[in-house]
Specification:
TIM Barrel, eight-stranded parallel barrel, 44% helix, alpha/beta, 406 residues
Length: 406
């Protein structure tokens, strides 16, 4: 073969670099291709105490580790020679269409992760036609969400207080702010023990040591945003002039029973979702009460360590509740970190999934652009995986597509 000197016109197309079109673009964010990499980027951009609050679990973190591990053992059984030129990832979530089978879980203290907090996250949900959950422990009120993001589908997550009149006040405020769903969290008779937070001083009230303080000081951008915006506080407790330790004792009521769920069903006129279900019998009892949906959840491994893995419980609960469209919808959360994880849960019987850590990694890494990228990555992964599975839409997915390896 005759050789020749290399020419620039032949070399240029092979080069994977060029001058940036936008000199202010976040190049590190652009390089992120999956949630594992988003997690690592977030770890570099916020103080250790903040990252650990999101990333950690209760005690030895076995519940969270096991939830991650079971998704790693999911094996897909793909069908071939199917027409998947057009697919549909929309999901019916308590009577309305959502662009994806993904619900943004309630997360407390969101403005600690990024100064724009819940408003920012709700706007991403609004722009992508996804459901947003505001936590009782959020740093933005239900009224503020309703005023600033009026078109987002929104649910209010509730911890039933010992003082039921105060709980009723929260419910009425959420209803007045246009919240369509109420999500009662029932796996918090008391707060879980989080050793990472205890070591970092993120207790109630905070006891931040010198080491944690200096670590925070090494993140000047995080500090600048924190110090030049509104004080970091729980929005629902702004008018309570008491120590946080006393507030926490009021929030978690160990006396909550199924009778309280019936009471909520009578006073809340919207959709009622119960989060924190970990047994088949509890799921069946809630079906009999007439709730609209249940969430199989171990609170992301942040409450009772060694608790059951939701994905492993899912097929049993689906069998007891009945086929999709019969009785309450079944949602699931815990360690969902890819589009493939989402499809595995749907195939095993879930109507939709909740993500929490996933979008908080995005928020810590790059604010709104980070959360948007999390949605983009999950959507792309789901689009790819469902085509490779040989299915056109979510309704075609069933347990025949999935095996969990021993």
């Amino acid at each position: 073969m005759k050789r020749q000197f290399p020419r620039w016109k032949n070399i240029k197309p092979l080069l994977g670099w060029s001058l940036p079109k936008d000199p202010f673009a976040d190049r590190k964010l652009k390089k992120v291709v999956n949630l594992a990499e988003m997690r690592l980027l977030s770890k570099k951009r916020v103080p250790k105490a903040v990252f650990d609050y999101v990333d950690g679990g209760a005690n030895d973190e076995l519940a969270f580790i096991r939830s991650q591990e079971v998704y790693s053992r999911v094996e897909f059984k793909a069908r071939v020679l199917r027409d998947v030129s057009k697919i549909d990832l929309t999901a019916d979530i308590v009577g309305q269409k959502s662009a994806l089978p993904i619900i943004f879980a309630p997360t407390g203290y969101t403005r600690m992760m990024h100064y724009q907090g819940e408003i920012m996250v709700a706007k991403v949900c609004e722009e992508n036609n996804l459901v947003y959950n505001l936590s009782t422990m959020g740093t933005t009120s239900s009224k503020e969400i309703g005023e600033q993001v009026p078109n987002v589908r929104r649910w209010f997550q509730l911890y039933l207080w010992r003082d039921r009149s105060q709980s009723l006040k929260f419910i009425e405020e959420a209803q007045a702010a246009g919240f369509e769903g109420l999500m009662l969290t029932v796996d918090t008779a008391v707060g879980g023990i989080k050793w990472r937070d205890m070591r970092n001083g993120l207790t109630v009230p905070p006891k931040i040591g010198l080491k944690t303080f200096f670590d925070m000081a090494l993140k000047p951008k995080w500090w600048a945003n924190l110090l030049t915006t509104a004080p970091l506080e729980f929005a629902t407790f702004r008018n309570f002039n008491k120590p946080l330790s006393e507030i926490a004792a009021k929030v978690f009521d160990p006396a909550v029973t199924f009778e309280d769920v019936k009471w909520l069903r009578s006073v809340w006129k919207g959709k009622l979702i119960i989060k924190g279900i970990q047994t088949v019998s509890d799921a069946v009892e809630l079906k009999d009460i007439g709730v609209d949906a249940i969430v199989l959840s171990n609170h992301g491994g942040r409450q009772l360590d060694r608790s059951i893995v939701p994905l492993e419980l899912l097929p049993q609960v689906r069998s007891a509740i009945g086929p999709k469209g019969n009785g309450p919808q079944i949602f699931i959360d815990g360690a969902i970190m890819s589009g493939a994880d989402v499809l595995a849960a749907i195939a095993l019987g879930a109507d939709a999934v909740l993500i929490g850590r996933a979008y908080l990694y995005g928020a810590m890494a790059a604010g709104k652009k980070g959360v948007e990228k999390v949605v983009e990555m999950l959507r792309f992964e789901m689009e790819t995986a469902i085509k490779l599975l040989g299915a056109k839409d979510l309704s075609e997915l069933n347990p025949d597509f999935v095996n969990i390896r021993n």
